Amino acid sequence: DHACFPEEMAQLMQELSDPMFGICWDFGHGQVAFGENMPEELKKVSRLLATTHVHDNHSGKDLHLPPFFGKIDWEKVTAYLGDIRYNGPMSIELLRSSFPDGIVEDVLNCLYSSGKKLISMAEQKQ
Q: 24 forms bridges with which residues in the sheet?
């Protein structure tokens, strides 16, 4: 596996020591790499967190599913983001090729609802 671990990323950011750089936490990649321990790994870089990529999967493969369509515990994730008062971007990351043309509008409506739910969940924890 070629993924960096949180400790390595935190060390790199400290060595760069420049506010222009921060960590992008990819929830899908985090789920594949760390499974249920992902929120604990996220804690290791929370003070350096600049942005996120929000997508879901079933732990074994990075599928770029909409939030709530996989195994990520979004309740636990949003509770933690609320605890650290994260108010940065939550960028939804999906693969356009995953959805046939005839249902793209439905997928976008679902993503809108998923995003609103994530916002609501995070705001309740702050």
A: 51
